[in-house]
């Protein structure tokens, strides 16, 4: 991962991480329970990249993520991402997800229809499960059919997803049951 650096930053949901290179932000790491665990997870995923002081652009992205997770409706659309290593289909999913305003949601099926058909819903879910830049690409705003939360691969799973939606003021009529 030549040229990549990372930083850890505090948010309302815990210590997050961000990795970047010359072309933009490459990854965002949701909290893993502690700064050290978040730092270790970044290094597991991206190798022994150095921790560094964020550039002006990266610091602006960090500030935006902190604001969003503190309840300010920052849509983060100005954040430049480096998704060069991401498959084209996934980039299309992420582009649609980035257009969902804070406090609003779409379903996997809604995104699938925009990409060609509801039968792509599972592919949309898989793309979101591989999202390298959660928060900036707001996969937490994408729900399963019936406004159920669906999966969330971050530490804390669906609880983290629901907390992020609650912070943004999204209304999710969801009560967990034994059958979820």
Q: What structural keywords apply?
A:
36% helix; two-stranded parallel ribbon; 2 domains; Arc Repressor Mutant, subunit A; Double Stranded RNA Binding Domain; 3-stranded antiparallel sheet; globular
Strand order of the largest sheet: 1-2-3
SS element count, helices: 6
Note the main sheet: 3 strands, antiparallel
Domain module count: 2
Secondary structure category: alpha+beta
Rounded radius of gyration (Å): 16 Å
Going by CATH, the homologous superfamily of the largest domain would be Winged helix-like DNA-binding domain superfamily/Winged helix DNA-binding domain
Mean pLDDT: 92
The stretches of 5 or more residues where confidence is low (pLDDT under 50) are none
- Quickly name the level 1 CATH class of the largest domain: Mainly Alpha
Query: Remind me, CATH topology of the largest domain?
Result: Arc Repressor Mutant, subunit A
- Would you identify the CATH architecture of the largest domain? Orthogonal Bundle
Helix content: 25-40%
The tally of strands reads: 5
Order of SSEs, N→C? EEEHHHEHHEH
- Characterize the overall form: globular
Distance between the termini: 38 Å
**Percent of residues in β-strands:** 5-15%
């Amino acid at each position: 991962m030549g040229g990549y650096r990372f930083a850890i930053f505090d948010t309302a949901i815990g210590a997050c991480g961000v990795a970047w290179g010359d072309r933009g932000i490459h990854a965002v790491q949701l909290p893993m329970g502690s700064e050290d665990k978040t730092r270790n997870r970044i290094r597991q995923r991206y190798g022994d990249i150095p921790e560094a002081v964020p550039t002006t652009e990266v610091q602006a992205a960090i500030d935006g993520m902190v604001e969003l997770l503190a309840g300010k409706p920052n849509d983060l659309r100005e954040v430049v991402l480096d998704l060069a290593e991401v498959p084209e289909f996934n980039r299309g999913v992420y582009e649609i997800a980035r257009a969902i305003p804070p406090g609003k949601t779409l379903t996997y099926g809604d995104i699938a229809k925009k990409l060609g058909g509801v039968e792509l819903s599972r592919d949309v879910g898989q793309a979101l499960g591989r999202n390298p830049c959660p928060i900036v690409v707001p996969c937490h705003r994408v729900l399963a059919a019936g406004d159920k939360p669906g999966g969330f691969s971050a530490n804390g799973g669906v609880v983290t997803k629901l907390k992020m939606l609650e912070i943004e003021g999204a209304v999710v009529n969801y009560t967990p049951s034994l059958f979820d």
